[in-house]
Amino acid sequence: MSEQAGGRVSLLARQAGGAAGEAVLAAVVAAVVAGVGLVAFSVVHWPAFNSSNVTKAITTVGQVVALALLVVAILLLRLRRWARVAKLLSWVGISSLVTVTLGMPLAATKLYLLGISVDQEFRTQYLTRLTDSAALHDMNYVDLPPFYPGGWFWFGGRFAALTGMAGWEAFKPFAVLGLSVAAVIALVLWSKLIRADWAIAVAAAVTVMVLAYGSPEAYSAVLVLLFAPAMVLAWGALYRPAELGADGAGTAGGWGAVVGTGLFLGLSATFYSLFFGVAVFAVCLMALVSAGVQLRRERAWRAVWPILLRLITMGVIAGVLALTVWLPFFLKVLGGTIPKSGTAFHYLPEPGSELPLPMAHFDLLGAFCLVGTIWLVVRAASSRRAQALGISVVAIYLWCLLSMAATAAGTTLLSFRLEPILLTLLAAAGVFGFAEGARAVYQMLNEPNRFRTVAAALAIIGAVAFTQDIPHVLRAEITTAYTDTDGNGERADKRPPSAVSHYREIDADLLAQTGRPRDKSVVLTADTSFLAIYPYYGFQQLTSHYANPLADFDGRATEIKRWSALTSPAELIDALNHSPWRAPDAFLFRNSGDQYTLRLSADVYPNDPNVKRYTVGFPKTLFDDPRFKVTNVGPFTLVVRVSAP
Description:
The chain has helices spanning about 5-40, 55-80, 85-105, 120-130, 150-165, 165-195, 195-215, 220-240, 255-270, 275-300, 305-335, 365-380, 385-405, 420-445, 450-470, 470-475, 475-485, 505-515, 530-535, 555-565, 570-575; strands at about 520-525, 535-540, 585-590, 595-605, 610-620, 630-635, 635-640. A hairpin with a 2-residue loop joins strand 3 (about 585-590) and strand 4 (about 595-605). Helices cover about 60% and strands about 5% of the residues. It has 21 helices and seven strands. Strands 1, 2, 3, 4, 5, 6 and 7 form a seven-stranded mixed sheet that branches. Helix 1 (about 5-40) crosses helix 3 and helix 7 crosses helix 14. By secondary structure, the chain is an alpha/beta fold.
């Protein structure tokens, strides 16, 4: 290696080490801010958000203070004074913004957005599973590796174990803490890509978009926060015409961006498969565009090889990280276990049937996205930032079109879930567009003294207006967190709890009657929120869309129906003993006349809703045998196999 090349590698290593160190320090600051904030919120007896405006008022005060910290940080950077103080203020400000916006409206409940309902139920079940054990495992089915990436849930499980909380209870603080840390890391990444003062403004705009439209799905929101700067980083790695010499070889200067992009792709693979696919699609599109430009410029295929090499390197890094969560599943498949079901992509709500066009809406969000869109078009030929964000936006729209086209093949690509990513890309572009547009108007007006103040005032007013509206945008999700019954059997709005309040007694009976730990028992129940609170394994998942493809959801449903049609306890016991899968050690039914019932589900895609609920009834006489112990608890009936093998 030449002395010059060695010097570049050394400089790259120092820069990467400095950025990583700064990110770690920022993450620690964010974690402290989120932790202190959540503890402070919890020591006061607040009224329920859905029955009082008190928490909304306190949330607004906290948001204004957080935004003020960010404004002060920007001013200090603009004045080139106390840069380290400005950096610290920006970290505290953006993590405070996340903490107060989510933590304060939820201060009087132990549950996160959406409570333990619908999609949040299976996510809570996953966190409960990985709280019970650090070993990667399917959230529901015994003896199966996970199909859904467990990265976020594994870290959440370790957080819960460290703090001594149950998985369901740790969900809220870990989600808020995780989003705070991710927002600050995104800010650090932005600061390495653009001017420090602009980085704060862009990171803040992206963060409020994620809080408003991505935060209910906390594990994917972490990736959404990082998506836009990661795409700018990726474009910097793949499109470097200034570094290409006569032989078409690239220098070491862009390899830091290559490694950074690979790490983001790997993180995506361990957190959320869909966003991993979208990120890979966007990066490959960037590589294709870069290769096309280089071919046109160099008119030689050798110009493409550096781009391909960098793309492959990103893929290798991402693949190594992905294997940390995907290897058990791959080994199971390679061992001969064939996936027999899989309907994760069988969902097409109305938003998935049309292109998302937020810039066409006549509101503050629409106006901001329109500014971003205009900037992307105007600066497409002259700004690398605009090119990176613009290609990413194009990738989102292409994915949406592919998803809609895939409906003809009986599936989708779940494009409706990409709207938060699109909004963050346009929000980042909107900040650049507003800043550059204001500067252009300032120059056109012969630089009037007060114009900058007016522009700054408009930006601050817009930021406050949008931010304080976030609790209203999330009102339904917040309300569910107060109306759902938590794992303690309580509703945060102090109204009578649901049947979930009986779960504690059911758990005690199960432990006493089976005589073994929770994770050694399989329970067949349609009340799967019980499995979200206590780490028993389930015989059947809530819906096929969240079921492991290796579990054969449809086959299990058929087997349950067959059991219900049997005529004697002896036949049922024989059927359980010869089940293709490990049979239930216990059944948790609803009591209905002369039957015990399960309300199960079936995939009915392409209908919307995509799930049909149906009831399976077991005659009570099937369990009239000493080998079953029957216990009635409220509206539930618990049946335990006394002599289960």
